[in-house]
């Protein structure tokens, strides 16, 4: 018997906008971002959700059928979205991707659908709410995308960050109290001016804003990559399983 969307046993449907840039792009970061996208899709599925890959902004009916949204990593946002000219450091700026991600985020937030942003998704949410970005970080900062001899291999700078107690991200990592998270950073841009309507919930030692949330809605984001393969299976799975549970609770409530 087919399970209905609203039955307790059905999987929450989690919308994820596809990556539109080809892995054949000469910049290897594009292929890396596409691989990370695939990992996120699998973690949503393994965490109990049903990934819904979106190639266009959802219709009203399609949006109603979603229980949550994950905004994944990828290339740089077009700086014109936050009122700046593009610097030479920007890569894989794709306005079709921006249009897809922004439309999905805006519609989902307006409909009260839980939204989790990761890396680019974190930056996109800040811009959508009216904030700005650092177009290119100073090399050598703790969050800059240079490998560090901590926790093993991988294209990451590894460090720890304390997440503020009682926040949505702390909840995703299994604690209503403050939690220290070992994080994989791989980015050359970061939040500059925090948008009105968003609250900072984690900051790195160098001042990089690592997590944001909307205190009025289930909208939250992290600058790091919880899907990094170098993490243990449980470390990777935990935040996605918890986000799926948030989406399931909203649907059933």
Please tell me about this protein's structure:
This protein is α/β, with parallel strands linked by helices and 253 residues long. The chain has a single domain (13-136, 188-252), classed as Class I glutamine amidotransferase (GATase) domain (Rossmann fold). Helices cover 30% and strands 20% of the residues. The chain has helices at 28-46, 60-64, 95-111, 120-128, 168-172, 233-252; strands spanning 13-17, 50-54, 68-71, 115-118, 133-134, 157-163, 179-185, 190-191, 199-203, 209-214, 219-222. The strands form three sheets. A seven-stranded mixed sheet has the order 2-1-3-4-11-10-9, sandwiched between helices. Strand 9 and strand 10 (209-214) form a beta hairpin. Helix 1 (28-46) crosses helix 6 (233-252). The longest helix has 20 residues, at 233-252.
List the main descriptive attributes of the protein structure presented here.
two-stranded antiparallel sheet; 6 helices; single chain; alpha/beta; Rossmann fold; 30% helix
Which fold name fills CATH's third level, the topology? Rossmann fold
> What overall form do the CA principal axes indicate?
globular
Largest sheet, spatial ordering of strands: 2-1-3-4-11-10-9
CATH architecture: 3-Layer(aba) Sandwich
**Compute the gyration radius: what is it?**
17 Å
Order of helices and strands: EHEHEHEHEEHEEEEEH
CATH homologous superfamily descriptor: Class I glutamine amidotransferase (GATase) domain
CATH class categorisation: Alpha Beta
């Amino acid at each position: 018997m087919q399970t209905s969307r609203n039955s307790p046993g059905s999987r929450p449907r989690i919308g994820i906008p596809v990556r539109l840039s080809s892995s054949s792009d000469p910049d290897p970061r594009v292929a890396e971002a596409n691989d990370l996208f695939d990992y996120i899709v699998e973690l949503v599925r393994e965490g109990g959700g049903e990934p819904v890959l979106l190639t266009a902004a959802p219709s009203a009916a399609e949006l109603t059928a979603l229980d949550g949204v994950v905004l994944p990593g990828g290339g740089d946002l077009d700086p014109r979205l936050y009122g700046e000219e593009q610097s030479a450091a920007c890569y894989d700026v794709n306005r079709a991707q921006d249009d897809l991600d922004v439309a999905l985020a805006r519609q989902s937030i307006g409909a009260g659908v839980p939204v989790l942003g990761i890396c680019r998704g974190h930056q996109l949410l800040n811009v959508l709410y009216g904030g700005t970005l650092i177009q290119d970080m100073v090399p050598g900062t703790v969050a800059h995308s240079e490998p560090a001899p901590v926790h093993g291999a991988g294209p990451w700078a590894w460090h720890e960050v304390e997440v503020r107690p009682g926040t949505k991200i702390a909840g995703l990592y299994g604690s209503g109290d403050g939690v220290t998270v070992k994080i994989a950073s791989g980015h050359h841009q970061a939040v500059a001016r925090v948008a009105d309507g968003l609250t900072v919930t984690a900051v790195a030692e160098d001042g990089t804003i690592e997590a944001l949330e909307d205190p009025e809605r289930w909208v939250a984001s992290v600058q790091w990559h919880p899907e990094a393969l170098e993490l243990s299976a449980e470390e990777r799975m935990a935040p996605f399983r918890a986000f799926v549970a948030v989406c399931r609770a909203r649907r059933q409530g």
